[in-house]
Amino acid sequence: MAEAARKRGANEQRPVTALRGVGAALADRLRRLGVEQVQDLLFILPVDYDDRTECRRIGALIPGMRALVEGEVQLTEVVFRRRRQLLTRLSDGSGFLTLRFFHFSAAQQEGLTRGTRLRVFGEVRRGPQGLEIVHPEYQRVTERSETVQDTLTPLYPLTEGVTQGRLRMLIGQALRELDTAGVHDWVPRELVEDLHLPSLREALHYVHRPPKQAQLAQLSARRHPAQRRLAFEELLAHQANLRLIKRATRTDPAWALEDAEGLAARLLSSLPFQLTGAQARALAEVEADVRAERPMVRLVQGDVGCGKTVVAALAAARAAGSGLQAALMAPTELLAEQHARNFRAWLQPLGLPVALLSGAQPARARRSALEAVASGEVRMVVGTHALFQEGIEFAHLALVIVDEQHRFGVQQRLRLQEKGRACGRFPHQLIMTATPIPRTLAMTAYADLDVSVIDELPPGRTPVQTVVVPEQRRDEVVARVAQACRSGRQVYWVCPLIEESEELRAQAAEETAAVLAEALPELRVDLVHGRLASAKKEALMHAFQTGHIQVLVATTVIEVGVDVPNATLMVIENAERMGLAQLHQLRGRVGRGAAASSCVLLYRAPLSVLARRRLEVMRQTNDGFEIARRDLELRGPGELLGTRQTGLAQMRVADLIRDADLLARVQAAAEVLLERYPDNIAALSARWLAGGEQYGRVG
Ligand code: ADP
Ligand code: MG
What we know:
Helix 22 runs antiparallel to helix 23 and helix 25 crosses helix 26. It is globular, with a radius of gyration of 30 Å. With 699 residues, it is of the alpha/beta class. The relative contact order is 0.10. The strands form 4 sheets. The protein has a 7-stranded parallel β-sheet with strand order 11-12-10-13-14-9-15, with helices on both faces. Strands 16-21-20-17-19-18 form a 6-stranded parallel β-sheet, sandwiched between helices. A 5-stranded mixed barrel has the order 2-3-4-6-5. The chain is 41% helix and 18% strand. It has 4 domains: 109 residues; 95 residues, CATH 2.40.50.140; 276 residues, Rossmann fold (3-Layer(aba) Sandwich); 157 residues, P-loop containing nucleotide triphosphate hydrolases (Rossmann fold, 3-Layer(aba) Sandwich). The two termini are 39 Å apart. The site of magnesium ion has 4 residues, from helix 12.
């Protein structure tokens, strides 16, 4: 028995070079795809399938179809139509089909003489002489030719340096070994028994070689039980890995923030407003975490304008009041500057200086700020993510606040944790995000975090009225801008990312600003964009905040976080080109005070179906969660979570929306793995996760 298990283990870990036809060069290319062992090949899963089990009649072909046909060559000729090309006319008695080759060899041409029988496969399209296939796969049919295939043909994800044909061949070999060598099923049976899914081995056979009678539509939609079995395992691998990360980080030592100086309480009583119930709840959760000697890793989720910053400031005051340091990282310079302003307004009256680390700072100012941080003289530091990556020395960093984490993934969180480590202690992490995502998705994607939700806006806000207006009615919009300013309000006019380069974007915004300034000579119009020096941006934002600028033309640099409550009108140009999350973020810049605000979405016709739907969603609702839900329907989770930041968004078989019904089961199963089969988690992670995301491999 033990002997058999050992043999199986050894077999399972055979290197790919054990396969026929795999030399050092190919092994090298395969390694770049993450394939080192024979079993790794089995987990390169088809993205779709072709049906080559049956020859179609040429007369029954429809453009767009991928089809197998068999026929006899009528004529092959080289023609010159802009480019030299080879045309072969094929007939099966029911019609004609042209095969078109732009690249071909003399030998190929000679092999396609009249009377040759061919079996060809490819995508049928309408050509100048009727239906055609460009660069079909084809083979000559001879007496000895095999009959057509009896399983569907898998299409593997495109892989650099390894062709489909080669991959099919290798995976075919690995599949044949599957029965003898086996592949270990790391998902304990009891966890999947009642889901009535096939075994791992059956599932793998099925997805790589679906039988002829398989439902192609079901497979393409990835709803087949075999795919669901694999999806379950993939989701489980991610989930268990994240929980392992969570568990491990929570055993590190951290400072307990007791706030002996009572600064948090003093800040709270000095605020000109009362916290909302939701803010108070989130703050209580944060405080409970940071009082423990284990690092907090908490996400505070809440719609734009719900007041996350003040919660963070109260946590920072608690760290400072414990004689330790807090740092806030913002995604842009603009935001870092704004946060520094806010934190100064809140903390300096308590006797706490706030250091700003900005990329544009003169070297001397920067150096003295860095020194103050290293000596512990300054307890609150604000800067951009980039600055923190460069490495700052802290005297005793106890709390890291990350603003707008939708650009901030698992790996970055772990690295930050490691970086912030000092004297053997790890900082608490508070991550704020304005990307509200549905609960099941949040629990899955952020399983390594604790989550607080601020689901309430400060009182007295009136919802932003949104209108959708075609470009042709721009004049009316300009009149509206004039009107808003006349009544003492301020306006954002956003020119989004439609140009290739930051330089062109800046130019486009400059033009708009010039046109507006001319149309509205009595108003103070100015412009902010990404190419301005940081000190200039800061000065402009300050001028807008204090009302010296009435109309601020901007690129999407103002997308996140900017807070000027007197601005009550926002115009967004080319709104049809922007995603819902971004539109929602932008719109969140208005409606921040008590006055009624509005948002004008200017678009250029014609609108695509998707663009029309997006604008409609914006018109209908201000609720970030609702918008996220609709966004999810329209685009899928990849876009919503940001593809780069989480491996969850780019899984191989699973899909957080399609397989949402599995998520609760996956969470429960992950818990069981963690409790009872911890060793299986590493094996599952190695099988399913990209290297960098795996627990213990973050460098
Ligand atoms: P976000 O959550 O989008 O980061 P902010 O923290 O920028 O939102 O807060 C938006 C605005 O609401 C700020 O001007 C802030 O001072 C104000 N604010 C925050 N909490 C409250 C509250 N409880 N009552 C009234 N105003 C508040
Ligand atoms: Mg914010």
